[in-house]
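= Protein in question =
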Amino acid sequence: MPQTTRDEAAKSERFHIRATARQANLIKAGAARRNINLTEYIVDSTCTQAEMDLAGQNHFVLPPKAWSAFVKALDAPPKVPAGLKRLFSRKSVAESR
């Protein structure tokens, strides 16, 4: 369930939707399965999908200073933690038999 801030707790927006009987039954069954009310189920499910849709965006804009820092981080050589180096230097479980 997405986290909400104190300001978001006061619900003021309203959506009106229409669904087929099949869609309505499916949504009601999902809400019942999670043991939450229909509105909460619809809002949570829709917000989760919206977050996934927006996470895949491939165009974003940053102020020039932030963009430079972002590009610099992308261009920097990768940092390999010492623990990861040790892990990959050991024989695997399959090799040790």
